[in-house]
Design brief:
- About 30% of the residues lie in helices and about 25% in strands.
- The chain has 8 helices and 9 strands.
- It starts with a helix and ends with a helix.
- About 35% of the residues are buried.
- The N terminus is likely disordered.
Length: about 290
C-alpha cells in the first residue's frame, strides 16, 4: 500500500514543490500547539462577562470543481456574574450601542489578516506584510521557507448605511445582521490560482458576520432554553480552490482526504481561536461601556 502512495505522488501537479508544501503545513500546524489557553479565568470577577457557549463548524470540498467551503459559528452570551446563572440579563446591562458594535465588528473583522501574524500564534514562524498603497493587500508569509502562504485583498464592507446586505441567512435564527465583512483571497501557496472552467478570476473570500439577537421574553420564562445575545459567523465563500486538493479535476478521493485531514482541520482550529479572541475583545468593549 505504501508503494502505491509513493507512485501516486509523482502524478501530483507541482510535485517538485511537495517539500515546500509540507513545510507550510508544519508552520500552520503551530497554531494547534501554541498558546492553547486562549480564554483566561482572570475576568471571572468582571461586572460583565461575554462567554462563548457553543462553537459549531462544517466544511466541504466539491470533487467535481475542486472548490472548498467552510462555515464556523459561535454562540455568545453577555451576562453579569451577580445575576442568576441561567437568566438573560443582556437587556438590563449597559452595553455598547448598535453603532458602536458595528464599528467594533467592522474593525476587528477587517483586521483578521494581521491577527494571523500574531507571535503568540506562530511563535514568529509566520508574519504578515502589507503590499504597496496602489494595490493594498496582506501577505501571510512563512519565515522558514520564505513564501507567501496566503494573500488577502483589502476588506469589503457589505453595507448600505446600517442596513447590511449579506448572504448569511438570519431569519432561521431570529437575529439582525449588524456587520458583514468580506476579505478576498488573491493568491498564495495554499490558493490554487488556476482559472476555473468558466474562466473566472474569483479565488474566493473569507466572510465575517456579526448577528445580534433580540431580547426574548421566552428566554426569561424558560432560562434553560435561552438564546445567545450574539452569533459570530465566519465562512470560506466563493471559488476558493485549495492547492492541497490538487489542480486536476475531478479531485481524487485521497487528495480530498488529505485536504480534510490537514488544512480543513487547521482552519477550523484557527477560527475557533479567532472567535475566542473576538469574544474577549468584545467583553473589554462592554466593560468600557459599563463604566
Amino acid at each position: 500500500k505504501s508503494s502505491n502512495i509513493r507512485k501516486d505522488k509523482s502524478k501530483i501537479p507541482g510535485g517538485n514543490h511537495m517539500s515546500i508544501m509540507f513545510h507550510i503545513i508544519i508552520v500552520i500546524a503551530i497554531y494547534v500547539f501554541s498558546d492553547a489557553l486562549l480564554q483566561s479565568d482572570a475576568s471571572s470577577a468582571s461586572p460583565i462577562q461575554a462567554k462563548r457557549e457553543v462553537f459549531q463548524w462544517a466544511a466541504s470540498l466539491n470533487r467535481s470543481t475542486g472548490v472548498a467551503s467552510s462555515w464556523e459559528q459561535s454562540y455568545v452570551c453577555i451576562s453579569s456574574p451577580t445575576s442568576p446563572k441561567y437568566h438573560d440579563t443582556s437587556s438590563q446591562l449597559n452595553l455598547p450601542s448598535r453603532h458602536e458594535v458595528y464599528k467594533f465588528a467592522n474593525e476587528i473583522f477587517s483586521d483578521y489578516p494581521r491577527y494571523l501574524g500574531k507571535k503568540s500564534l506562530t511563535l514568529g514562524l509566520c508574519s504578515v506584510s502589507n503590499s504597496t498603497e496602489k494595490s493594498p493587500s496582506f501577505n501571510l508569509q512563512s519565515t522558514i521557507v520564505g513564501v507567501d502562504v496566503l494573500t488577502f485583498g483589502p476588506p469589503r464592507i457589505q453595507k448600505n448605511g446600517l442596513e447590511i446586505v449579506c448572504d448569511v441567512e438570519v431569519k432561521a435564527i431570529g437575529g439582525n445582521v449588524i456587520c458583514c465583512v468580506e476579505i478576498p483571497i488573491l493568491g498564495g501557496y495554499l490558493a490554487n490560482t488556476t482559472n476555473g472552467r468558466n474562466g473566472g478570476v474569483d479565488l474566493g473570500c473569507l466572510r465575517f458576520t456579526w448577528v445580534e439577537m433580540e431580547p426574548s421574553e421566552h428566554n426569561k420564562t424558560k432560562p434553560r432554553n435561552r438564546r445567545p445575545n450574539i452569533i459570530i459567523v465566519t465562512e470560506i465563500s466563493g471559488n476558493y480552490r485549495p492547492t492541497l486538493a490538487g489542480k486536476k479535476t475531478p479531485i481524487s478521493w485521497w487528495r480530498k482526504q488529505f485536504y480534510f485531514s490537514t488544512q480543513r482541520v487547521i482552519h477550523a482550529y484557527v477560527m475557533w481561536r479567532y472567535h475566542g479572541f473576538v469574544v474577549n475583545e468584545f467583553e473589554k468593549k462592554c466593560l468600557q461601556a459599563h463604566v
